[in-house]
Amino acid sequence: MGKKAATSEVIDGLINGLRDTDAGVRRYACEALEKMGEKAATNEVINGLVNALRNTDAGVRRCACEALCIIGEKAATNEVINGLVNALRDVDDGVRWRACQALGKMGEKAATNEVINELVNAFLDDDAGVRLRACEALGKMGGKAATSEVINELVYALWDVDAGVRRCACQALGKMGEKAATNEVINGLVNALRNTDAGVRRCACEALCIISEKAATNEVMDGLVNALRDVDAGVRRRTCKALGKMGEKAATNEVINGLVNSLLDVSADVQGCAFQVLEVFS
């Protein structure tokens, strides 16, 4: 029933359910509150979910994180944030990555020094899902999380053994925009253009597109020209867009020749993007 059942009487009953002696009932109470979303975002509910983060049952702790994630910014109190920071050190990896996810959903409101430091520590987690969600969370915090330490750790994450983490690191750097446009970041993204995973290469193109003006170096443009010949059409299309975003700085003979060749691409989308960029250059 979800939001339609979110009466004060039902919510009070679910809060009591969070303290039930049976772990299954406690989990279902968390799940029901999660489905009610912001309609269930009362102080009593939020306090109950914070207490549930310390429950002896890992399933209850996971469900509490998920409920707080759905409630999002409305739950971004100091008590909740502290509870989620503690959950980042939980013995259960499912709790840890859900805690990252919940902090990310709270965005800039959760971007305290303590939270940022703990998310950076999560890059060392054994579980790839935790590392991935830590990257995502820092990306959602945007410029507020763009400290030199965070940026350096995201550059290291571009070399993570897990392709999903590498993709999220590219995306997070892109979301931080010009604040993340350091030489180390740009070099890392150029290297990512040659990654074995097409998704990583796509995300690297997107990040370079966002920081385009500061990224318009010879090395970057050489990397993008090579990417115009990538086996993946999504990479080729994003490469055209990145070159277009760099404007006249990218209008070298080599780039223009590469874009002219792209007019013959097997993908109509790539052809269209190349044509648009050449129009801008002209």
TrEMBL record:
Pfam families with a match to the protein in the record: HEAT_2 (PF13646)
SMART domains: EZ_HEAT
Protein name: HEAT repeat domain-containing protein
Gene3D superfamilies assigned: Leucine-rich Repeat Variant (1.25.10.10)
Alphabetized GO MF terms: oxidoreductase activity
Database matches in InterPro entries: ARM-like, ARM-type_fold, PBS_lyase_HEAT
